[in-house]
Input
Amino acid sequence: MAEHITIGGLHHLTAVTGNASGNLRFYRQVLGLRLVKRTVNQDDVSVYHLFYGDAQGSPGTEVTFFDWPDAGPNRPGAGEVATVSLRVTGQETLEWWVRRFAEHGVAHNGLQQRAGVSFLPFTDPEGQRLELVDDGGATGVPGGTPWDEGAVPAQYAVRGLSSVTLHVRDIAPTEQVLTDVLGFRRADDQDGMCVLESGPGGPGTQVRIARPSEQIPARTGIGGVHHVAFRAANDVEHEQWQRRISAAGLAVTPVIDRFYFRSIYFREPGGVLFEIATDGPGFATDEDPAHLGEHLALPPFLEPHRAKIEAGLRPIE
Ligand code: ZN
Output
């Protein structure tokens, strides 16, 4: 490679909800994540974009949602992020979560093992496919800092993204873009699947690729994932990624300033929308870190339209 740039791991995941109020209750009160930013979709300011994460909304801990009540249900199939794995630490922690899910009526499939690693598959109230995975205390990508006012004791807290599982019709072209263009490599623990990782490797950096049981094209909707974002360390490397992806013949957007980070987007050959986002500047750029997510935050270019935007949003209860 001419330029030695590395994807630092998973940056965030953006999914679709049809019920922002219920979404906030589940991710904050049941999963114990912090709502670090309450803002709008910059491409459609009539809907909320909610960002959940650790205490600061560190890159790698963010799970975000567009509120699209009219989107219709997600249809699983080929060309989507099928499963989102969140990291926790320790077998005892997973057992604690089994009890918590029972208390809160969360649908789950019980503790399971994969390549010697314990995980707990579950769904959110809209059918979003999720897992809690024991990260074994791995620190290649350090886990996030739990929010000390959160609903879950710090020792059991979700520490961020562990991996995403992509479902695609053909594994090879997707794997090739991840390895040849984005610099991913095969992980050691394969468990019969194609598992790739980047940067320091391990939890927080992994992409799993599989073929879905139903070979129909996925249709993004409520309870599904819209895109997955990977980490660029800084603006210089971010621009290099933009050039490299373009040079590989993929249709990539120009750099877009999302205010909390910079973004580029492209669709990989299997149909999954990928984003590369910068680690900074982060969520404390326009709010006191002690009061993140309490009020509607708007980037400066939308601030002049605040009254109109607020009037157009479906209230969150
Ligand atoms: Zn994104």
